[in-house]
């Protein structure tokens, strides 16, 4: 079984993850946690920290010139996944917050000598520092909890001040230094009530400083409270510089916490899968039971989405140009919202799979469940994060940054496509309006073909532009942002054509020109009344007539997309009825006007068409219609389905555009607060899927195969896409249920039911994830 912990994105990260894991095995071996929690007062975050600091963990994302290891926040994310997986008590979250705060001041010395010296000491492991984040409703890092006054006439960075006040929650209470915001007088000539925020450095061993250790839900993460009474402090910064630094430090601490929680969830997932393979009930491993598989598949989906959010936040922190604070806060909210909820859900799922043993003190599971619950409020509640992600609110409402289209870089394929679409789409709309019928979509396909934009990802030898998968997805994003119509012959372009390129004879590959031009529309004859997700059970027969060298086809296909309009069908048939289910299947290229073919339209619940039921009665096609080797149609089919990986990534990015379109439509309406939070959830789901798609895309672009993140996209997309339709309709209230003919929100609501059925039901997808990704027994 492949581990779901500390998943690396580079060879260097893999080496780092292995080094951290080996260190923890030596110094925090299995069973150590239970020995520690037997005496909660003995739990210390300082025992492991020197060893981790020797690996460079404390200063991993800090430049070498400032005393750090010269790595990245994304590297630290991988390392902290390994720490979170074993609940290693470390001050990593607090230290990450302090490091982020100090680097925001200019850790190279431009932020003051004291800040630079402290940062170097933290990186070297000589000092452990924390930040006294204080909370007001919806805001972390406010400075009202502490009051400061000058200790001498000297002003500016390095000056001494006296500070009083308290913080009821302090991470890493064993830290030797505390950074905090306080209110200080504006100056001698300012009014008595005028005060400004100042960032102060306090030595916890100084007079007037009292750190009280407090008990908590998490037995392996010490908490404390800080009381200051005219304690001496060093001024590091003031005004907007001070508050911006603490705001940045909150983001770096959140990235560390989110990464730890991803590691926690990955460990619980791995533990559940291992136990399910070993534990037997009714004569079988419980991992072979579908109910258990589905629990683990959902756990896997959650872990991958949480990892995508955590790595995205780390990636923003690594940007060479400082990311706007609002964008960073959005990423913090998304990462914490998902990482915390997944940690809670997956640790609970771990206990559920374990059963009674999981509810015992002796088992490790409750320690993970405790950590997940105790982490939830550390940097704001789930409601606060959801409100932050409200797509209607400033500074990123429907007319602001989140809804704005991304302009492709000049000189790229996407930029060239955008220029053509901007010119051609208004002409199409003038001709067709909002008509989304097959003829309208086919006309748009032919328009794009005329300027060379149908199948730009095809190799040049077949009429394409040879675009990479990255460019292909970027081009699809352009089409989504312009709300361009879908292609009429999309199955032919994306599924049939690549299979023809690989398996087709020169005569068969001649169809590629028609597919691209829109003069040939293709469908796939896969599903049958008795074989939907179970494709290997198909019963449509094709017998090779030795006298005429023709295949004689009899059977029935159903749910055939564009089956009423198609000119040709790539048809799966059983050619050897005595072979095993996955064997004895062949793929045939069948003209849809062949004698013996009957097509009947299937009306969807929306009242629209789009599907067909197709009957084959003694339909004859020549042997030259065989695509690929005889009886090897399953391999051909798997090749066809493998090309859908790009389409899956595109679906993820398009869902983001869908929810932005919904937000744009609803902007200006008076919405119930609960509805707004519900839509914020939809936005978060769409954004998470987009980030997961980017991770899969990045792996493919680097020349590797997509990992588990690609496998879960379809499953997560199905559920998220379905939720958008329901949320949109609910937001419209009475306006959403009235009006004829069927309005777009009504149609979207009804169509969304197909999201968890088409292309494989969610139940089948969960089985696939459990068996093929997690390796659970059949």
Provide the fold topology.
Blueprint: H1 11-27, H2 32-37, H3 49-54, H4 73-85, H5 92-106, H6 113-124, E1 129-131, E2 135-136, E3 139-140, E4 146-150, E5 160-171, E6 177-185, E7 195-203, E8 209-214, E9 223-238, H7 239-278, E10 280-281, E11 284-285, H8 290-317, H9 325-354, H10 365-375, H11 382-388, H12 413-432, H13 438-450, H14 469-481, H15 490-503, H16 506-509, H17 511-517, E12 522-525, E13 541-545, E14 550-561, E15 568-574, E16 585-591, E17 597-602, E18 611-622, E19 626-627, H18 633-642, H19 644-666, H20 673-701, H21 708-732, H22 734-737, H23 744-751, H24 762-773
Parallel strand pairs: 1-6, 12-15
Antiparallel strand pairs: 2-3, 4-5, 5-9, 6-7, 7-9, 8-9, 10-11, 13-14, 14-18, 15-16, 16-19, 17-18
Q: Can you put this structure into words, describing what you see?
A:
The strands form five sheets. Strands 1, 4, 5, 6, 7, 8 and 9 form a seven-stranded mixed β-sheet that branches. The protein has a four-stranded mixed β-sheet with strand order 12-15-16-19. A four-stranded antiparallel β-sheet has the order 13-14-18-17, with no helix packed on it. Residues 396-404 have low confidence and may be disordered. It is 47% helix and 16% strand. By secondary structure, it is α+β, with helices and mostly antiparallel strands. Strand 8 (209-214) and strand 9 (223-238) form a beta hairpin. It is built from 24 helices and 19 strands.
